[in-house]
Specification:
This protein is of the alpha+beta class and 157 residues long. The chain has two domains: 29 residues, no CATH class; 87 residues, Immunoglobulin-like. The protein is built from three helices and seven strands. The strands form two sheets. A four-stranded antiparallel β-sheet has the order 3-2-5-6, with no helix packed on it. Strands 4-1-7 form a three-stranded mixed β-sheet, with no helix packed on it. Strand 2 and strand 3 form a beta hairpin. The protein is rod-shaped. It comes from Gimesia fumaroli. InterPro entries: PEGA. This is PEGA domain protein. Keywords: Membrane, Transmembrane, Transmembrane helix.
Amino acid sequence: MSDSVSPDNSDLALSAPERVSVSKRRWLLVALLLLVSSTQFGCVHRRMTIRSIPSGALVKVDGEEIGYTPASVDFTYYGTREITLTKDGYETQTVMQKVKTPWYQVMPLDLVSDNLLPFEVTNRHEFTYQLQPKVVVPTEELLNRGNLLRSETQIGQ
């Protein structure tokens, strides 16, 4: 057997008071790590605001109503969203809107921004849409078109 102390048994080479001190430091370090890990660090808050011109349109994001413009909603994942705007007197507008991923949310940087930053990062996206007035076709013009289509189908037979 060798007289040298192996690295695994380094605590045995210490005197009893020194071992207690090392043990206390280890427990203190573990407690500190638990405290730090339990607090909220590095959270990314993602929020999308949708506006329309004119305002007051009902907004649906991915089929879920979120309110009337201007409307804001929190989200978790980036990607393409289906946004539908509806307002009386205006054409319903459906848009496939890409929500771009910021540079600090790209792998592996997202590990740091989501977990290790000592402050919250707010990522806001704003989208504005111009609504088109609904075209109201006069009744007489609709009747004329209907009669024209009827006569074209009768001639075709």
